[in-house]
Amino acid sequence: xxxxxxxxxxxxxxxxxxxQSVAPAxxxxxxxxxxxxxxxxxxSIGEPSNLLPxxxxxxxxxDIHGLVYNGLLRYDxxxxxxxxxxxxxEISPDNLTITFHLRKDVRWHDGEPFTAADALFTYxxxxxxxxxxxxxxxxxxxxxxxxPDPYTFRVTYAKPLASALVSWMFxxxxxxxxxxxxxxxxxxxxxxxGTGPYRFxxxxxGEKVVLEANxxxxxxxxxxxxxxxxxxxDPSTMFLELRNGGLDLMSLTPLxxxxxxxxxxxxxMFAKYHYPDFSYTYLGFNLRRPLFKDxxxxxxxxxxxxxxxxxxxxxxxxxxxxxxxYKPGSWAYNPxxxxxxxxxDLARRMLEEAGWSDSDGDGIREKNGRRxxxxxxxxxxxxxxxxxxxxxxxRFREVGVxxxxxxxxxxxxxxxFINPGNFDATILAWTTxxxxxxxxxxxxxxxxxxxxxxxxxxxxxxxRLLENGRRTLxxxxxxxxxxxxxxxxxxxxxxxxxxxxxALPAVARRFHGIDPAPSGIMYNFIRWYVPRDQQKYQx
Amino acid sequence: MLVHIAKRLLxxxxxxxxxxxxxxxxxxxxxxxxxDLQTQLNPDASAELRERLRAQYDLDKPLLVQYxxxxxxxxxxxxxxxxxxDRRPVxxxxxxxxxxxxxxxxxxxxxxxxVSVPLGIVSAVRRNSLFDRFTTxxxxxxxxxxxxxxxxxxxxxxxxxLGLFPIAGLKSLGxxxxxxxxxxxxxxxxxILPVFVSAFGGLAGFSRYMRGNMLEVIRQDYILxxxxxxxxxxxxxxxxxxxxxxxxxITILGLSVPGLIGGSVIFETIFAIPGMGKLFYDGVMxxxxxxxxxxxxxxxxxxxxxxxxxxxxxxxADPRIRRG
Lengths: 539, 324
Prior knowledge:
Number of strands of chain A: 22
Low-confidence stretches of chain A: 1-29
Number of strands of chain B: 0
Shape of chain A: globular
Number of helices of chain A: 17
Shape of chain B: globular
Helix content of chain A: 25-40%
Oligomer: heterodimer
Distance between the termini of chain A: 31 Å
Structural class of chain A: alpha+beta
Largest interface: A-B, 57 and 54 residues
Mean pLDDT of chain B: 85
Low-confidence stretches of chain B: none
């Protein structure tokens, strides 16, 4: 879901909807007029699980939800909140009530009019204890939801909630089709009915999902007539299909981007784009371990990591070094935090000062008879993290720190190591969302078993900042809060923030109108077109 | 004979129960649960939600209670509903994937038999000839080649470069607009590479087996007798030797019945074929217990039945077994 932080499960990330900053390789656009028609073929590694957004939590499903449904609000190309099904909204002076004024010209794909009752119904679905949804938490904070008239929807909170507004980007579900019976057994699970620019046509299990332009879409009919998601579980096969013309859009790996697509034939057929992705990879220390309780040690290790080397070696240069949990260039990002340039000599000196010195001459430091040795754990199936681990291992060895790298299957990795806090250090990644609320990852109340502050970071000032940050609605006040939060993280180094990778989509050249923006390339998908004489598929 | 079969069928019941109990316990021992995808590392998921989801799936009950419930449903031939988010009946999911897998496996076993039986015979008859050595090298090459690697090479060379074959999937885009004959041709066209890749690795075992049997039979006294009678070499080999050498093939075919529905994760993943192998693999990765158990039960039943059929057929074909 766009609204969530989901951990990067590794492997290939197919294009998400959220990307930033611009660096297109765009030419030959010409002035050909937009035309209706043609089909866009996309690949999906996984089969969508469920086409009712309230029940799904995988990226394959949410890609399709994004075209079939609308939320009340959405992000525009610059990641600012704008109206979607709501043409306007007001926040009360006490920041407790949001009133949405809904569009009157929207119809569901089956012709029924969209009203505020649908919005209210979606809210009730989200908080219904019988509905197995992962999204209930945020909506529980609503104390009152009401429909004063058919085109007004109003929600009231007990306390101001900064992420309240973006939570209403959640796809609105059709009341008239879902109010009776068990939603998990609804036919809409496999044949969704939304208000979005594309209508569901068919889902052939294991093979494809087909969508067709909605001629009655409130923003006008999309140019591209059909969108087909082909389910291709193997990334190598997907790349072969792309080269063969069996796919029109795919997110490349750095290796594919730099080495395998640098041929005239490929460049003739595809345009490649790159812009920072909404995620960052980090090396997190288990702060409960005595080894890492010492701030000097964490800082010394930060100086021993060459982030640029990681970007060059792991991402082939397609990424930037990270300094904190927010994406460089986003509004919450604070560039003026303490940095740790690569300096092995300084790292060695700092370790000496902390009492770690190599007294027996075996190249590994000791303190009070204990060797400076620890294990970095990471999950199987993500080559980039393993490579990063190997590079870091070598750099740490150079300053007299012995590191073992252990790669573990995902479920055991979580169950045996991360959740119980049974690890020294780990390389993982978080996906980020435009809203900077990081309460669940950094607040000291979230250090329990299975919670997200698994490194055990506890800092009273950070707690206070995070509490204030999620209750403050004013952008500049919030910015001050999160700027300070980033300063403390940089000072404390509970994570060494490693890098922010880039999203690397390749799109067939016959598609025009693509205009990369901070939010990526998909935000104006309904305005993409193929000029009449370049159209490939007639049906 | 009938008594024998009935006895074997009855014995299958406790065996099957044992298999399901062990499978059920083992898959629950693996770390991770079906609710993990929704709740793990998800900031919006509270501890309370996790408990609620677990209760909905009965995961909060003791393992034996869960097994009892599952067994109760199985008694009504109900495999239950999948634990992944689509919550579809397991039987429906399996039925959807089964035809493709059976088709590919039947084609592939057919191709293996078609190629390896003659290969084995000729290798045995001309033992140590140049042909024999060449086929030995060839089939072992097939045996040793990783199928995913071969598949990718063939897709790149024959698919992308030469454009002879489609790369992945079973149908072209626009398949539904083709005439019926064209549709069949389209599917067959898509099937050539996957069937070839899955058969290539199986050639070695079968042709070696055939060669060994044949050599064994040729050394028998009755072959000597046949030759002494002055029969032509053709008649000796194909009428007298081959029939006897083919007998063990029945056993192998019987044992390959469960394989028919198993499918292969590797080539189904590479060729993007929605078959049982991939379904089962995904089920395991998501800890979709009802689906895993459903596939395992069907597999176990087919294995037991396959064994039984092989024994019976063997007895029917070979009088020596019947008497012994």
